[in-house]
Write a structure and sequence with these properties.
This protein is mostly helical and 138 residues long. It is 75% helix and 0% strand. The longest helix has 27 residues.
């Protein structure tokens, strides 16, 4: 697997690292104070234990994805691992976009997941090219 590290463009590793830090921060903030992520206008009852439990699940998902992305980036893991983890992260962006559209929340806050999804798609395309190159070489 170490041979893979040389072929992954530096910008991809940096972008994955940034996404990892954002996911970790989002997860930690979700655990500490969910009202930071969900403003009062959403009508969510933050005192409800079921809402608290759902929030913890949401935060743990973000934290786990961030830690996995960070770990694979730091150890200069294989492009296949980066592709899989980036696709998992992209699926969460797609979920956010679909839920916003279904709920009629099409506003400026939808721009962020769309931008992240676009970046993730470019990274996956780049990494697939790296994988194909490595297969052709070896």
């Amino acid at each position: 697997m170490a041979a893979h590290a040389d072929n992954v463009p530096r910008w991809v590793r940096i972008a994955v690292g940034i996404l990892a830090v954002l996911n970790i921060a989002y997860g930690v903030v979700g655990y500490l104070n969910m009202s930071v992520l969900f403003h009062a206008g959403t009508g969510i009852d933050f005192t409800n234990p079921l809402i608290k439990n759902a929030n913890d699940e949401f935060a743990s998902r973000n934290l786990a994805i961030g830690l996995a992305l960070g770990f694979v980036t730091m150890i200069k893991g294989a492009p296949e691992a980066l592709v899989i983890l980036t696709i998992v992260r992209a699926l969460t962006e797609i979920q956010t976009i679909i839920l916003a559209i279904v709920q009629g929340n099409i506003n400026a806050m939808l721009i962020l997941p769309v931008v992240f999804l676009a970046v993730e798609m470019v990274m996956v395309k780049t990494l697939i090219g790296v994988i194909k190159l490595e297969e052709a070489e070896g």
